[in-house]
Amino acid sequence: MNSSQNEFVDVLFEKEVMLMKPENTFNSKESVDVGGSERIPSEMRAWEVTSPAPIDSSPSPIHFVKHPVPVPKTSEVLVRVISCGICHTDLHVAEGDLPVHHPHVIPGHEIIGRVVANGPQAGRFNLGDRIGVPWLRWTCGVCTYCRSGKENLCPNSLYTGWDHDGGYAEYVTVPEGFAYRIPSAFNSVTAAPLLCAGIIGYHAFRRANVPAGGRLGLYGFGGSAHLAAQIAIAQGIEVHVFTRGKDAQRFALELGAASAQGVYDPSPVSLDSSILFAPVGDIVPKALENLAAGGTLALAGIHLTDVPSLNYQNHLFHEKVLTSVESNTRRDGEEFLTLADRLKIHPKTTEYPFEKADEALRHLSHGDMQGACVLRISEG
Hints:
The chain is an alpha/beta fold. The protein folds into 2 domains: 3-191 and 347-376, Medium-chain alcohol dehydrogenases, catalytic domain (Quinone Oxidoreductase, Chain A, domain 1, Alpha-Beta Complex); 198-324, NAD(P)-binding Rossmann-like Domain (Rossmann fold), CATH 3.40.50.720. Helix content is 26%, strand content 25%. It contains 10 helices and 19 strands. It has helices at residues 3-20, 88-95, 144-147, 197-207, 223-234, 246-255, 283-289, 312-316, 330-343, 357-366; strands spanning 32-33, 39-40, 43-49, 62-68, 76-86, 111-118, 130-133, 136-138, 158-159, 171-175, 180-181, 215-219, 238-242, 259-261, 271-276, 291-299, 321-324, 349-353, 372-376. The strands form 5 sheets. Strands 5, 6, 7, 10, 11, 18 and 19 form a 7-stranded mixed beta sheet that branches. A 6-stranded parallel beta sheet has the order 14-13-12-15-16-17, sandwiched between helices. A two-stranded antiparallel ribbon has the order 1-2. Strand 18 (349-353), helix 10 (357-366) and strand 19 form a beta-alpha-beta unit. Helix 4 (197-207) crosses helix 5 (223-234) and helix 4 packs across helix 9. The termini are far apart.
């Protein structure tokens, strides 16, 4: 990167650091009129990670608090949150599997809401528009990866609910260029899992190089996997599911999977491709054994426990491919939302009241679930 690019990145980072300062909030004790029909309060309810620890710990690592409502900065919009999906990454943030990037962060990055204020120079959305706020919050736009269409690999990238406060709150800000318009076919609860579980699952599906009419293995069957399964089945791919939960196994079969079994069981057929959604490294050797020659195993999570030693002959020979999956590009998101609308993908959701986010995270950690958990924050 040359000196002018470095200066540009420094300016962008200075703006982003200012975004995270607590003084960038509505400082009036009364509600604020932002020019639309909705008045914005000075404080909001939110969940924040106070001290990362196992979610079953006492006291809990997340607490329900009062928090200042953020102010949208240049090219940002303020969103009143309607719903927010519960993602495994939220669990990793709360439990400390991921390092702390923003102390007392508000988690959540599968956010559906309505625009209630525009920051300076923001004009992409109108007040009242329903939009989605995803995991990927910002990329620099000038590095080699950004300029080659691989912004998901940007070393300067920032993420909602990790680097910046997210959607376990009544309001959130987002740079307008990183938000999505939500197809009208999806209501605000079922749409929430599309913003990460769906988009990341789609990116992992592409990374897995599934051949037309091929056989795909899915390890773990939560929010992301059940959406990837629907995308695959709709395209004529034979899906085999490996998951510990009996309810999840039954759900996979109901969706049209050809088989469903335990995570360490042998596959009933050789698989052309597989995606590992469960953050468990011990599964990797078995998943590789179940691959046909030339098959690909894609590791879809941001966090994975240690992978055991691999045997070259048993696990990697015959041109098997092992690849990771990192985040997504905005193009991935636009493609997936269009495809989900066209193929009539139906996220399976369990709705939780806003006040029970800790309970939803505990449910997620226990693993035996159908689809995705979603917090209902407000009516939309």
